[in-house]
Amino acid sequence: SACLVGSEMCIETGLEEAFKAIKLAVAQAQILHVVDPALPFLLMVQVDNAGFGWGLWHKHMSQKELIGFWS
Asked: Cα angle at 48 between 42 and 50, to 5 degrees?
């Protein structure tokens, strides 16, 4: 499990390793769309017994544009 103490995260060993893997995957992901820092971002994460994946989107009004993903 994970907890928040002040501004510090405390994460169990298995979760810490998973978090490191996610950070590495995000750093290596290819961009599908040019990032506009003025637009809000939407991060969608899916986790189940078969694995995990994520998608990073730009949200503009009712439209979403995929920026990157990993599965």
From this structure: 120
Residue pLDDT, tens place only, 7-29: 666 666 677 777 788 778 777 76
Distance (Å, rounded) from C-alpha 60 to C-alpha 71? Answer: 24
58, 64 contact by CB (below 8 A) = yes
Strands 41-48 and 2-5: what pairing? unpaired
- Name the CA radius of gyration of the chain, rounded: 14
Integer Cα distance of 2 and 58 in angstroms: 27
Q: State how far the Cα of 48 lies from the Cα of 56, in Å rounded to an integer.
A: 18
Question: Which structure tokens are listed for 63?
Answer: 């439209």
Closest residue by Cα to residue 58 from 48, 68, 49, 50: 68
Q: What is the pTM of this model?
A: 0.47
Residue with tokens 């002040």: 6
